[in-house]
Design goal:
mainly alpha, 76% helix, 7 helices
Length: 207
């Protein structure tokens, strides 16, 4: 999932550098969507809660969609996030802002928590999809799961799947939620301060 995310982000970034009009159109769509969902201009604790709840909803939906067999919806969620990354990075580059500095100051501080949370949620969703398929086809459940009791210790495919659900929910509670909380706090209170010197006197959304 990580390799897929990086590949799509790099390919979309490279493509959009050669098509600046598409990059601008897509980034404006992203900005408009964020402005509608999040109280960006208000900042503070209200923005922190909004970012956390929005990210938690997206990650949880990506994971839960794994219950639907054969479609592998969590993979599409990862693709969408990777495309968004490619769109934003290409637009920043086309605006003449140092991309490496933007990545280090604007994305990395919260991204090292947020991106793994999304990838982990998507991976758990794929794991669910594979095991729902195995349950439907009565194939022995032998796939790896989050750390803990191996599936072979359970007595039936149904027991194995129930055990998997418990492990996935535990991981969601103890890993994904804390990662998204930390990411939202950094994105709200730290990232804007880090970006101030870089964006001083510049506007990302001017013509």
């Amino acid at each position: 999932m990580t390799l897929l995310f990086l590949t799509v982000a790099v390919v979309s970034h490279t493509y959009l550098i050669g098509h600046p009009e598409i990059a601008e159109e897509k980034v404006m769509e992203i900005v408009q969507a964020l402005m509608e969902k999040l109280p960006v201009l208000e900042g503070g604790f209200k923005l922190f809660i909004a970012i956390f709840l929005n990210n938690l909803f997206v990650a949880s939906l990506s994971m839960a969609a794994g219950i639907i067999p054969f479609l592998f919806i969590p993979v599409w969620a990862i693709l969408i996030n990777a495309l968004a990354m490619g769109i934003i990075s290409s637009y920043v580059y086309l605006k003449g802002i140092n991309l490496l500095t933007m990545l280090v100051l604007g994305i990395a501080p919260h991204g090292i928590f947020e991106i793994p949370a999304f990838l982990y949620a998507g991976s758990l969703g794929v794991l669910l999809s594979l095991n729902v398929i195995r349950l439907i086809t009565k194939t022995p459940a032998t796939l790896n799961m989050p750390p803990g009791q191996p599936m072979s210790d359970t007595k039936s495919p149904e027991d194995s799947f129930l055990f998997l659900l418990k492990r996935v929910l535990r991981t969601w509670l103890l890993v994904i939620i804390p990662l998204l909380l930390v990411a939202a706090a950094i994105e709200t209170f730290v990232t804007p301060q880090l970006l101030k010197p870089l964006l001083d006197g510049q506007s990302l959304f001017s013509g």
